[in-house]
Structures are given as C-alpha cells and as structure tokens.
Amino acid sequence: MADKDYYKILGVEKGAAKDEIKKAYKKLAMKYHPDRAPEDKKKEYEEEFKEISEAASVLSDDKKRQQYDQFGSSAFSGGAGGAGGGAGFEGFDYSDIMSQFRSGTFGNFDEMFEQIFSGSGRGGKGGGGRGRRRGADLLYETKITLKDVATGTDRTIELNKLEHCPDCQGKGALHFEDCHHCHGSGSIKQTHRTPFGIFQQVGPCPYCHGRGELGQDKCSACGGEGLIRQRKKIEVTIPAGVEEGMRLRIPGEGEVSSQGSQSGDLYVVVHILPHEYFQRKGNDIHLTVPISFTQAVIGDEIEVPTLTGTGKAKLKIPAGTQSETIFRMKEKGLPLIDYSRETGDQMVKVRIEVPAKLSKKQLELIRQLQEEKPSKSFFEKIFG
Ligand SMILES: [Zn+2]
Ligand SMILES: [Zn+2]
Q1: Which ligand minimizes its atom distance to the CA of 163?
Q2: Ligand nearest to C-alpha 206
C-alpha cells in the first residue's frame, strides 16, 4: 500500500495543532459528506470522505500520530480498500461511520467528531467531568440470507437490557420530598475564590442531581437503583445490499443510565449466510446452471433463478455455446446499499450435462453423430 500523506490530505502543516486538524477535518467532511455528493460523484465523495476520516483519526491521536510520523501510513494499513471495506487501520472503524450515514442515522457531525477525536470511541474518557454517564452501547449479531440481502429485511430482535424501572419511573423511590440542600430548586449557588476575585456560579444541586427532590424510600422493585433488567423487542430494518460484517447503529436503543442521561446505542452486526447455489462477489451474483448438450448445440432460451424481482429471468443460450461459458445478466445482482451505483449483475456459468442414461433411440442417434466425427480435424491438427 502506498504511503499516504495525512497532513497533505487534510491540508495542514506537519506541526499542526490538534485544533487545526479538527478544524481542517470538519471543513473537508462538510464538503465531502456523501449526502452532499452530486448523483454522478457519489463514489468519489465516498472515497474522499474515507480518506480524510482516516487521516483525521490518526493525526488526532497522539500515539498514532507519533507512529505515523515515524513509519508513515503503512504502520496502520491492514485490510484492503474497496467499497465499505472494514477498518483498514487500528482503532478507527470506518464501516461504522459509513453505515451510520447509509442507514440515515448519520448527520450529527458533532457526535461523529466526538467519536473520531476521542480516540477510543465513546464511553471511556469522553464526556468525563460532566458527571453524567451515558448508558452502555450494546452489540447484537444477526444472521441473514443472501435473499435478504437482495431485498432488505426487517428483524425483530430481543434483548435483555437495563431499562428504567416501571414502578418508580427510574427515580429509585416512590415518595419524594423537596431537597433541603437546594430547597427544591434543583440548583445551588457555589462560591469560588480566585486571584481575580470571588465568583458565584449556579450549578445543579449535587444532592438531588438537579431534580429538586429526594426519595424518602427505596423502590422495592429495583432496590432504589431506578434500573431493572428487562426483555425488550426492537424492530431493526436491514437495508438491501448490506455487506458482511457491517454494523448498523440504532441510536438510543442501548442501555439507559441511572442518572437519567442519554441512553447508549445499539449496534447490530450483520452476518450473511452462504447460499447453496448463489455466490456473492461484491454486488455481483455468480451461479452455475446445467444445460443439455442439444441446448448448447442448437441454442435455447432458459429460465434462470434470481435473487431479485420475480425470482427468475430469461437467458438466451446461443447456438454453439461451449461448456463453462459465462453469461452476464445485467442488473440481476444485488443492489448497492446506498444506491450510489448501478445494481450488480448476475454471472451465469453454463455447464453442459452429459446424460448418464439414454434410451435405445437416443443412443442410436448419438452413435450416428459419432460417425460424423465432428472433431476429427482437432486430432488431425495435434497428431499431424
Ligand atoms: Zn437538591
Ligand atoms: Zn424502581
């Protein structure tokens, strides 16, 4: 893999500060956001977006940046490129960002920056200091068939996850009284003494977490936690053209948090089951079908199964077709997940079947054919 100049890609100096990198990335990401691509330039925008995201994720991480300065981008290369290909380098899951905008959940730039610039993604150090913890993200793996890939599918998934306790609505208690620290206002005045003078600041009351009231008992259903583990069914729409290993993000369907802050997200990883007859290569479908010797010789029109449409399509076999010939059935393959390019094709390989059992009459006809010795010239050529 050729070495990439991440600084050049983002248009910044080699010694650029993190803020400059962030700014440069934001500007470029706005420009090349795949949603803004003109119809005929979707692929280029996608590639560009991928490139700048990769550059930003490396340069915004001190450790990776140092590695990059020392060894170049090959220090991070791994997976092959290609449409929607997985993470090419450590720690940055590009496919996640791709699936976000593809599934329509993408669009919150600030959240995306947070994801890229926080280094290790969400959870960890992100959001620290505010005292409010976001609910945990959940991961769910699901298997679908190739037919599902062709049409897209809806799945009901069942999760056992933390939810707000229905008895106390997540408050942890059933009876409340005004918080005596903040007198029920939920906020508290704090005085800071600094060399520049005394400052007063109003912030949320730390005793009642800004609620203005304090529980007088513990909810027995949840033991005062406000949270309870429950089975929950969630409808997930898996788009047509989805690729193996792709992660779909369902915002807010992760676990809730006890402080009543934002819920986590649910990630659904899609796995595609192999098909007995159809094989996927990119968005093309490969299939082998048998034809008879006579069909190959005099030609025919046959019906070939497909994954899309009515489930079958007509294919013309021209006279004199050789075994193993591959015919291309245009746009009978899989749709692309973001519809940015044409639908794939179905490649049909025909295999001439040699009959094992023949009637007397058939055998006689074949014998007559043999007497014609149609391929004699071939042997004459070889043996001289
Ligand atoms: Zn209070
Ligand atoms: Zn409760």
Answers
A1: 2
A2: 1
Q: Which two tokens stand for residue 189?
A: 């005045």
Helix axes 42-59, 18-32, angle to 10 degrees: 170
Angle at CA of residue 57, ends 54 and 63, nearest 5° = 125
The DSSP code sequence of 240-261 is TTPPTT-EEEETT-S---TTS-
Going from the Cα of 218 to the center of ligand 2, the distance in angstroms, rounded, reads: 8
**Per-residue pLDDT reduced to its tens digit, 200-220:** 788 888 888 888 899 899 999
Ordered structural domains, the chain, with CATH = 1-121 (1.10.287.110), 176-215 (no CATH), 279-383 (2.60.260.20)
pLDDT single digits (tens) 223-248: 988 889 989 999 999 999 999 999 99
Which ligand has the nearest atom to the CA of 170?
2
- Report CA(164)–ligand 2 centroid distance (Å): 8
> Which residue type sits at 276?
E
Q: Which ligand minimizes its atom distance to the CA of 227? A: 2
Ligand 2: distance of its center to the CA of 144 in Å?
A: 38
In a 13 Å sphere around the CA of 203, the CA atoms on its Cβ side amount to 11
Q: What is the pTM of this model?
A: 0.55
- Expressed in angstroms and rounded, the spacing between residue 207 Cα and the centre of ligand 2 is 19
In angstroms, the CA 100 to CA 320 distance is 50
